[in-house]
Amino acid sequence: MDTELTELAVAAGSVLIKAATAQGWEAAKKAVLGLWRSHAPAQAETIEAGLDTVHAQLAEASEAEAAEIADDLNGVWLANFKTLLRSHPEAADDMRRVVEHDLAPLVVGDSTQNARDIRQTARAESGGISINSGGNTTIGKIDR
Between the N and C ends of the chain, which has fewer C-beta atoms within 10 Å? Predict the structure, then answer.
């Protein structure tokens, strides 16, 4: 599987898990299920049960449990999306549409940025310091 398809599967799995407890989940579930019904109908019933499980497990999880459960489910759905793309690479355009138009808007407003990989590059020269962060960062003076 090429890098582009792998990145698409990673994005799809990640944003699916984040969207599972969002308002509008039923429409998102229908869109994801539509991928399988269109490209791998024999697996659609199993996928539907899996989507119901994702939603139920995350909705019922305590805050302490939610992150661990989400990590576990993310791995499962990464595998599901990769399997679909390996067997049906023609599903990529439909998957991209589902990620960008059906799932990502549920996560944060209408942003699709959350459904894509972010790459940061920084270079410090002449004794400079470079700090890349994927989240909140607090910077303070270091006494030496």
Answer: C
Kindly provide the b/e burial profile for residues 24-60, where b requires at least 16 CB atoms within 10 angstroms of the residue's own CB: ebeebbebbbebbeebbeebbeebbebbeebbebbee
**CB of 70 within 8 A of CB of 17?**
yes
Determine the 3-state secondary structure of 19 from DSSP. helix
Is the pLDDT confidence value at 76 over 90?
yes
Specify the amino acid at residue 26.
E
Cα distance between residue 129 and residue 27, in whole Å? 46
Range of lowest pLDDT (30-34, 51-55, 60-64, 117-121): 117-121
pLDDT at 30: 96
Rounded CA gap, 13 and 104, in Å?
11
Side-chain half-sphere of 132: how many Cα atoms within 13 Å? 7
HSE toward the beta carbon, residue 139, CA cutoff 13 A: 6
What residues does each domain of the chain span? 3-115
Cα(65)–Cα(128) distance, rounded to whole angstroms?
Answer: 40
> Which position has the higher pLDDT, 55 or 110?
55
